[in-house]
Amino acid sequence: MSTIKHLYEKFQPSHYDVFIDIDREKKTITGNTTITGNASEPQISVNQKFLTISSVQIAGEDVPFTVNNDDETVNITVPETGEVTLTINYSAPLTDTMMGIYPSYYKVNGEKKQIIGTQFETTFARQAFPCVDEPEAKATFSLAIKFDEHPGETIIANMPEDHVSAGVHYFQQTVRMSTYLVAFAFGELQSKKTTTESGVEVGVFATKAHQLKELDFALEIAKKAIEFYEKFYQTPYPLPHSWQLALPDFSAGAMENWGLVTYREAYLLLDPDNTSLDMKRLVATVITHELAHQWFGDLVTMKWWDDLWLNESFANMMEYVAVDAIHPEWKIWELFQTSEAPIALQRDATDGVQSVHVQVNNPAEIDALFDGAIVYAKGARMLVMVRALIGDDALREGLKNYFEAHQYHNATGADLWDALGKAANLDIGAIMKSWLEQPGYPVIEAKVVDGQLQLSQQQFFIGDGHDTGRLWQIPLNANYKEAPQIMKEQTINLGDYQELRQQEGKPFRLNIGNNSHFIVKYDQTLMNDILDHLDELTAIDQRQLLQDFRLLADGQQLSYADIIPLLPRFADSHSEIVNTALYAIVNKLKQFVTPGSAEESALKKFVNQLSAKQVSRLGWKPQAGESNDDQLTRPIVLGAALYAENPEAIKAAHEIFTNNHHRLEKLPADIRPLVLRNEVKHYGSKELFNELLEDYRETTDASYKGDLNGAITSTPDNSLITELINEFENADTIKPQDLRGWYRNVLANNAGQQAAWDWIRNDWDWLEKTVGGDMEFATYITVTANVFHTPARLAEFKQFFEPKIDTPGLTREITMDISVIESKVKLVQAEKDAVVKTLQSVTR
Known about the structure:
Elements: E1 11-23, E2 28-39, E3 43-47, E4 52-58, E5 61-62, E6 65-68, E7 73-77, E8 82-93, E9 100-108, E10 111-119, E11 140-147, E12 154-157, E13 161-165, E14 168-171, E15 184-187, E16 189-195, E17 201-207, H1 216-233, E18 241-247, E19 254-255, E20 260-264, H2 277-292, E21 300-302, H3 308-326, H4 332-338, H5 340-347, H6 363-368, H7 372-406, E22 409-411, H8 413-424, H9 428-436, E23 442-449, E24 452-459, E25 474-475, E26 486-487, E27 491-496, H10 497-504, E28 519-522, H11 524-532, H12 539-554, H13 560-563, H14 576-589, H15 598-618, H16 628-643, H17 647-659, H18 672-683, H19 686-698, H20 702-712, H21 718-726, H22 739-748, H23 753-762, H24 764-771, H25 779-787, H26 791-801, H27 811-842
Helix pairs in contact: 1-2, 1-3, 2-3, 3-7, 5-7, 7-8, 12-14, 14-16, 15-16, 15-27, 17-18, 18-20, 19-20, 22-23, 22-25, 25-27, 26-27
């Protein structure tokens, strides 16, 4: 595929009149697009993909054009340069790819129905209408949509509807915006609406397969989020409305189309009477993420896709800032510690990982940029570091100036650092360059050498890594004032340790609050001091210790065998984030034991010992006056007890199932996945399998669907696994958007791993045809690598994927994931004996 050419250099559109006629019955799109803009050369191009162009006209006269499908362009000869108005007539298929304009399918009372929606990010607007499909090519848009309409249908778009004439719905002209943010949808929709303090109309839309009450939570969060952002950004929301739409088929999690945000149903709709706190927090952060984009990404947009992080990293931070303001009792920054921080640290330690800011060389690489662990999670950690450095007053002042300077236009990362740096009187750009332009992160080794407290930084790798001597400007966040605010050097000396220790009166620690993107390796003197004062540490600080233990062990700078005896010291914590980190290490220990072996029995005995007091304290049912931490910790420790095959836990879960067999969806949402999975694993039958699979097909409750997925895929019955895999390509059972989760869960089930692995290898061509070209496609490789950890699986993985390594958009993922599996294989080979020996000794 050829290198990207920026079409905007030769043709700068200013306005589009877009008419699209959609026939759902015939699955066709016909349309004409009139583009007014400036042609700086006589040969200009606009993007198209899968469009059949019938004519290009200027002033009513046909002009010469050619179509280049490889470059996804229409190349046009204009009579003269300067302002020109083109009219392009075309047709296209209406496909089920979840890209461009596409149908979503659902059922109401057993009747199959569809609604039409759009997904234009990254480069899919060109599948709907001819355009200069680049972020910098901002223009205004007037949409006119016609479709095979029947009574009871609703159509919505970025802007309010202006009028209807001859069956065509005309919408008000948009503000100046990028093509990938254009959106519309129609079908039999229901909605709930409200109005913000400043008069913005906010609405939540969904199909009529859902109960109306499922829209309430999203409506409340959306309204409060817009009100919060208007105040925080000190910049008004720029459109008359903000619609949130749940689409039954949607590849991404959500999409920030300006004024019409689209979501997976699972990330917008929920049952207010029976949804776990964990799920409520997740849905709230998705909504606040997308609404943060209405300013940061939509009002001001990255100039080119290499600055994608500018959109996503910022929105990823702001989702937490907003939810913290709306629901402070949720302690949402603790969720940041359990979600964003660990995935960023894990992936960013693999040699070959992309940097946050990365060049784009061809169109297929654009979708490959959407690495959630880097562009979203790591980037958000970078901005959290900046926020901690400059404070909220400077952050808000800088953002206000940034929006004023660039609104309705485009910006680069340098523009943001310039605005924030001026507000904070600090050279933010210089500090952030080392974090954004180079991949990876440092481990700081803190040690006492000849009585002196020394710090040194070096790039941290999990697995083999090529150390090129990279250095970072590190916000140390130390608890000793002798440590500098920013560490730029490779090694620094803080002075006599005993004098410092006596003077400060507390153990030396770095990265207080775990906001900076590095980990710490303390020597034994410093670590013993910290562990002797463990009860004085906050939950986040205790979590950070466990997080760094795990990463250092993965990088073979610490032994898992040495960590095991420390874990009981954390096991009785009432903090959810400590327990999450604790059991993340427990899950890592599973790779050292063979399923069904005596060594696994020792691990299960150890896990049972770790979880026993917490299970006794919390039980299976919510208790009056319990904390949010208790609610969130309960499924963690109960899940551990079930893994450990604690007979009382297995029995209790079975009794709950039996007593609620005919109302499983009404089971308390926080324990429901555990109850269902336990039943399938220990009391499963073909009848139960069929019953749960039918429930999955019929329910519209996305949370319940997820629980059923986790349960059904845990069956130990090989014949049922075969039946399940036969459903992988049946969209009436498993929608393509959900297939990766099913595949991953069967792969992680020891009884199903071979069958799942055989399926993806045998049916790769089908998978590529169905979801290839989508930003989620490469993650099938990721989830496979995350499960595999044996030499045999490594060899098979390489045999299958190495021939595909030159596939655009897959190259980096395949290369990195080979390294991921190799590192686990080496780790297990090096430490298995010591880990098993330690497990046996601590469980005697």
